[in-house]
Automatic annotation (TrEMBL):
This is Signal peptidase I. The active site is at residues 49, 92. The keyword Protease applies. It comes from the Bacteria. Its main location: membrane. It holds the Pfam family Peptidase_S26. It comes from Alloacidobacterium dinghuense.
Length: 183
């Protein structure tokens, strides 16, 4: 048997094709496991408290390592374990950082004495709730939903500790008409 016939036999051998397919499948599963475990996690939005940016049943990717390289910033949309039941995850926008003074007066939010621009909150989603001044404790973040009139957020359960925040909402992948980077 010459070298050319061995190569030809290998190319047409069904067992060889199965081995290649199996190898590629195992590599794909391992890569997917690594990505989902350490980098990005797919999640489904359940509820309307982040409308209009996120809608009920939207599917998105959460960047699980973002805050290993950067600090949590005001305006970030974060995913965290609900402080009263860590089996549940919530998604909200960061409004105030550790050490910030926050107050809400008739629905208007003030951080460190300055009214913050909340262009992401449509007028029809605002509410008139007020909240007395408070200083956000160290390692905690004050979060709120964009649909203020229905959101259960730090106004109800208090600031969220850093250890409960497990990622930054990064990209909506479904439905296609809402696909894009989360602002």
């Amino acid at each position: 048997m010459n070298e050319e016939s061995v190569q030809q036999e290998t190319k047409t051998n069904p067992r060889h094709h199965l081995q290649l397919w199996l190898r590629d499948f195992i590599i794909s599963v391992m890569a997917s496991f690594f990505i989902i475990t350490f980098l990005y996690q797919p999640v489904k939005v359940e509820g309307t408290s982040m409308q209009p940016e996120l809608r009920d049943q939207d599917r998105l990717f959460v960047n699980k390592f973002a805050y290993d390289f950067e600090k949590i910033s005001r305006g970030d949309v974060v995913v965290f374990y609900y402080p009263r039941d860590t089996q549940k995850s919530y998604i909200k926008r960061v409004i105030a950082l550790p050490g910030d003074n926050i107050r809400i007066d008739d629905g208007r939010v003030y951080v460190n004495g300055q009214r913050i621009d909340e262009s992401y909150v449509p007028k029809r989603f605002r509410d008139a709730r007020s909240m007395a001044d408070m200083v956000v404790p160290p390692e905690e973040y004050f979060v709120m939903g964009d649909h203020r009139s229905i959101s259960s957020d730090s106004r109800d359960f208090g600031p969220v500790t850093r250890k409960l925040i497990y990622g930054k909402a990064a990209f909506i992948y479904w439905p296609a008409d809402n696909m894009g980077v989360i602002k």
